């Protein structure tokens, strides 16, 4: 191979590598927030003697081969306190679980069953739940009015800016979910700590909200608060659940 051909091959290789590593941005992230697709949801959960309305947050995820529903596992702390449950099992009195945007209940999706049900997994306290704060559901049927988020599998880096999108408990105007800008301050693998880059956000009740990166990909779930730091469950634990329960997904470095 002569020098000209070799140089051309090297340039082509570099160009190909650069293109293959380029992350495709979700087009809706360039639109105003009010024009984003509906992906921030809340929960209605029915038991034989109790129904919870608009409790915590939830969303749908696109695994690449299926759509699943997700919310926060520490909801079971409520069930433990009020219903006497003591493991990650909804029990015999469970009737139904629906998810919908808080501003439009006509866009409801009905859930079929809890995938990571485990009658041997204790609910425990938040300091242990924050490491595993994801519950996954199969859908009874798809709802094309709701947008399932695509998953980013690479870890959030220190100082990276991400965004929590969800409904707060004390939110007066439910026209659109809250948009909270966060910065990662420490990543511990299954979860990471953040600080808010906004004032007057009042995040109370936003547990279970999806956390997305600047390109619109899911990077975590709002878990809770420790002091001034927010706790976000990372997609690393989500993929552990995929592997454990033989859920097909298309892994990439997004």
Verbal overview:
By secondary structure, the protein is α+β, with helices and mostly antiparallel strands. It contains 4 helices and 15 strands. A 6-stranded antiparallel beta barrel has the order 1-2-3-8-6-5. A 6-stranded antiparallel barrel has the order 10-11-12-15-14-13. A two-stranded antiparallel sheet has the order 4-7. The model is unreliable at 8-21 (pLDDT under 50).
Present the secondary structure layout.
Layout: H1 3-20, E1 41-47, E2 51-62, E3 67-71, H2 76-83, E4 87-88, E5 94-100, E6 109-114, E7 118-122, H3 126-129, E8 135-139, E9 149-150, E10 161-166, E11 178-187, E12 191-196, E13 210-212, E14 218-226, E15 229-234, H4 235-244
Parallel strand pairs: 2-9
Antiparallel strand pairs: 1-2, 1-5, 2-3, 3-8, 4-7, 5-6, 6-8, 10-11, 10-13, 11-12, 12-15, 13-14, 14-15
Features:
single chain, 254 residues, alpha+beta, six-stranded antiparallel β-barrel, globular, six-stranded antiparallel beta barrel, 15 strands
Report the biggest beta sheet as strand number plus sense, adding barrel if it closes.
6 strands, antiparallel, barrel
Please trace the helix and strand order, writing H or E for each element.
Answer: HEEEHEEEEHEEEEEEEEH
Tally of helical runs: 4
Can you give the mean pLDDT? 90
Oligomer: single chain
Strand content: 35-45%
Principal-axes shape call: globular
Instruction: For the largest sheet, list the strands in their spatial order.
Output: 1-2-3-8-6-5
Number of strands: 15
Termini gap = 36 Å
The helical percent reads 10-25%
Structural class: alpha+beta
Q: List segments where confidence is low: pLDDT < 50 over at least 5 consecutive residues.
A: 8-21
What is the radius of gyration? 20 Å
């Amino acid at each position: 191979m002569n020098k000209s051909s070799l140089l051309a091959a090297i340039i082509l290789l570099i160009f190909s590598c650069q293109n293959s590593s380029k992350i495709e941005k979700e087009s809706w992230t360039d639109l105003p927030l009010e024009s984003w697709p509906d992906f921030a949801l809340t929960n209605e959960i029915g038991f034989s003697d109790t129904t919870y309305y608009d409790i915590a947050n939830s969303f749908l995820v696109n695994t690449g081969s299926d759509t699943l529903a997700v919310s926060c596992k520490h909801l079971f702390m409520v069930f433990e306190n009020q219903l006497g449950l003591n493991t990650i099992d909804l029990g015999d009195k469970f009737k139904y679980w629906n998810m919908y945007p808080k501003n439009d209940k006509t866009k409801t999706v009905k859930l079929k069953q809890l995938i990571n049900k485990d009658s041997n997994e204790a609910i425990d306290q938040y300091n242990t739940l924050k490491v595993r704060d994801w519950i996954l559901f199969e859908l009874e049927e798809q709802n094309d009015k709701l947008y399932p988020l695509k998953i980013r599998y690479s870890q959030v880096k220190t100082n990276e800016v991400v965004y929590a999108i969800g409904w707060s408990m004390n939110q007066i105007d439910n026209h659109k979910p809250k948009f909270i800008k966060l910065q990662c301050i420490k990543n511990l693998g299954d979860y990471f700590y953040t600080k808010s880059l906004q004032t007057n956000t009042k995040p109370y009740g936003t547990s279970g909200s999806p956390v997305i990166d600047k390109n619109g990909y899911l990077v975590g779930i709002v878990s809770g608060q420790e002091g001034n730091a927010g706790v976000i469950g990372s997609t690393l634990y989500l993929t552990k659940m995929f592997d454990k329960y033989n859920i097909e997904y298309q892994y990439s470095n997004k």
